[in-house]
Design a protein that fits this description.
This is Cytochrome b5 heme-binding domain-containing protein. By secondary structure, this protein is α+β, with helices and mostly antiparallel strands. The protein is built from 5 helices and 5 strands, in the order βαβββαααβα. It has a 5-stranded mixed sheet.
C-alpha cells in the first residue's frame, strides 16, 4: 500500500470537529474519530486542526501509549514542499522531567563562593570581632 501524500493546503481544509486532520512530524493523521476519547478534551485538538501540531503534541509530553494510538489514525505524509525540516521541540515523554539545557558553570561557582564566604566569616572574621 502506497502512502498518500497531502499538501498543507489540503490538510488545512480539515479543521472541524466532524472532519479533523493534524500534522505531526510531517505525517498526516485523521483524528476525527478520536476526539471523544482524547483525555485532554476535544477543544485542544480542534484548535490544532488543519495544521502542524508537532510542537503542541511534543510540548504536552505524550506517553508511548499515546504515540502508538496516534499511529492508528495515520492517513499519509505531507508533501515535500510543505514539510518542516526542523522543529523547536524538546520531546518529553509522560512521566519524564525535561532536561535542563544550561551548561553554565555559575550554577556551581556561585554557591561555592557563598559557602567559602560564610566559612571565612565564621572562622576568620567573626573571632576577631570579639
Amino acid at each position: 500500500m502506497t502512502a498518500k501524500i497531502f499538501s498543507l493546503d489540503e490538510v488545512s481544509k480539515h479543521r472541524t470537529k466532524s472532519d479533523l486532520w493534524v500534522i505531526i512530524h510531517n505525517k498526516v493523521y485523521d483524528i476525527t474519530h478520536f476526539i471523544a476519547e482524547h483525555p485532554g478534551g476535544e477543544e485542544v485538538l480542534v484548535d490544532e486542526g488543519g495544521k502542524d501540531a508537532t510542537e503542541a503534541f511534543e510540548d504536552i509530553g505524550h506517553s508511548d501509549e499515546a504515540r502508538e494510538i496516534l499511529e492508528n489514525y495515520l492517513i499519509g505524509t505531507l508533501d515535500e514542499a510543505s514539510q518542516r525540516k526542523e522543529y523547536n521541540v524538546n520531546v518529553i515523554r509522560a512521566g519524564e522531567l525535561p532536561e535542563e539545557k544550561s551548561s553554565s558553570s555559575l550554577r556551581i561557582i556561585l554557591p561555592a563562593i557563598a559557602i567559602i564566604g560564610a566559612l571565612v566569616y565564621k572562622f576568620v572574621l567573626a573571632p576577631k570581632a570579639h
